[in-house]
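=== How it folds ===
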Amino acid sequence: MKPLLLRELLGVLVGDLIAAETHAAKATADFLREAGFIAGRGRAADNWGALRFVTFSYPVEDPDGRRMRTIRVPLLSLLPIPLQQINQAEYEFFAKVNDVSDIDPAPKPSYELGSAAYGLAQPFSDLVCEVAPYAAEPAQDKKGDVPKVRVKLTMKQADLPAGLSSSLRRIEQASGSKTR
């Protein structure tokens, strides 16, 4: 592996997390579309078709006698929605610092926001690193400790997005129940 700027090395990891979130969001949208809607012929990408309902009946006793009550509910209100999100990312590796490069922020053209590289007004340093072999105890070498960079990745159930929650509530209110 060739040495990279530490921010580029971390950027690759963060970029992969963003790609994973994108894939998970698409999988959830595909699930909603397939499980919750009845496909119509030639439907456009933004037209998911008719909402899929589940209808069931049960007997009830009322003052007029025994009747069948029918309830119609959206299938999506009965299913667990597979929402996964990255809560924390956990990578553990050692980075061997090969070089330190000093960066003097150059003024940006007037049409760009800010006046310095990376939004920093004063010079800063970049670490040029490569991933080093894992060691239980960081080895001491001539340049000092081998830096340890740590990021955490833990998956958890995501909250139902407010827009989806609101839409399901409206659909349930509109569908209601009816007595036969």
